[in-house]
Amino acid sequence: MSTTQTIRTTDDAARFLAQELVRASASASLASLSGDGFPLASLTSVATDMAGHPVILVSRLSGHTGNLLADPRAGMLFVRTGKGDPLAHPRISVTGEAQVIDRDSEEGGLVRRRFLRRQPKAALYADFPDFLFIRIQLRQASLNGGFGKAFELTPADLLSPLEGAHELLAAEAEILGHMNEDHAETVGLYATRLGKREGKGWSMVSLDPDGFEAANGSEIVRISFGRRVLTADAVRERLFALAREARAA
Prior knowledge:
CATH topology of the largest domain: Pnp Oxidase, Chain A
Number of helices: 8
Helix content: 25-40%
Number of strands: 11
CATH architecture of the largest domain: Roll
Structural class: alpha+beta
Distance between the termini: 43 Å
Order of helices and strands: HHEEEEHEEHEEHHHEEEH
Number of domains: 2
Largest sheet: 8 strands, antiparallel
Shape: globular
Oligomer: single chain
């Protein structure tokens, strides 16, 4: 059987799984190119910017950081772990180019807040002068959703376009704070009833035009809005509708 015959046509279910794997991962394998041309694989904590590009926080003292600064080409592997054969669980390999984010810029502030909500322990060293926030600008991806479920994806399949979402960018921190402080029980219902997860202590850590993530320690779940939203009012409307759905579940 040829390679083209084994690749399925990308559908909405594949897109959501791919987005979920990237956006709902707390860590990922990172591959960079050493000066001798050989790849170096490492493990890194990860978050995403609002569009969905992976963001890492790395020290200049690390070998992979030097590699990325010298040659921005990179690969990342995101996996969903579970019982049994590791190869039976979904995973996605992405490639892209590393871009250093100016920490003093408006974007740098947004990325820092998103990263630390996802990785709160990183606050201990995030502002050290030798640490950098680096975005992996996605180019393409290969999704394996299980046996016989292989897909090739483009950035359009993985990302949430941010055109017209300036208000949402500005309101993200306020919305998350409001939900976690005033509606913690509802956030838990999103995770347990819509996301099919267990446990207490869930909090919303990030959102974008297509959905949001809730975290409980290192466990993260992504919930879809069901349609694209661009304003704070539209987000509140969708959160209210999802709350009704979760309570009825």
